[in-house]
Amino acid sequence: MTGEIPSMWRSELWHPLTAHFPLGLLLLAPFIALAWVIWNKHFISNYLLFTHSLLLWVGTLFLWITVYSGEIAYGTEVRRICDPTVLKDHLRWAYISGAFFSLAVVLDALRWNWKTKKNALLIYTVIINMVMGAAALSYVGHLGARLVYQQGAGVYHPSEDCAEFE
Question: Against a cut of 0.70, is the pTM above it?
Fold first, then answer.
């Protein structure tokens, strides 16, 4: 064996392991909230409001876990890639999307604590923050894909003869 295959449990690989869960939750949450806007007079509206809040809160928690794991990966990958500005943009936009979703969580908590649970101004402000957060998060995903598929961030490159797999 000429080389050794690196472990799949390297610290820089925790980031892609955690990244897809908040993506799914936080990109779905605004659609559930918009469904509530459409059907808010029907019996299903309370379920939609609860589901949107659950997706938002859990997704935002996992978003910050993903940002933390991205900070760990940053220290390793910034030295390995050709254009570190993409990595810096990826990190900056992750914080921006986290800010939008965190503000949405705070406003959603206020909405749940007020006596009128259907305060329209708060709900629409939460939805606007989630839509802006989803747009920023989509761009974060795009930049992450550029890092992996254009620059090979976090990717193991085997030798030409693949001798390490024998």
Answer: yes
> 70, 87 in Cβ contact below 8 A?
no
In degrees, rounded to 5, the angle at the alpha carbon of residue 140 between the alpha carbons of residues 72 and 49 is 105
10-35 pLDDT, tens digit per residue, is 777 889 889 999 999 999 999 999 88
- For residue 93, which of 57, 58, 141 has the smallest C-alpha distance? 141
pLDDT band at residue 137 under the 50/70/90 scheme: very high
- Residues 6 or more apart whose CB falls under 8 angstroms from that of 27 comprise 134, 137, 138
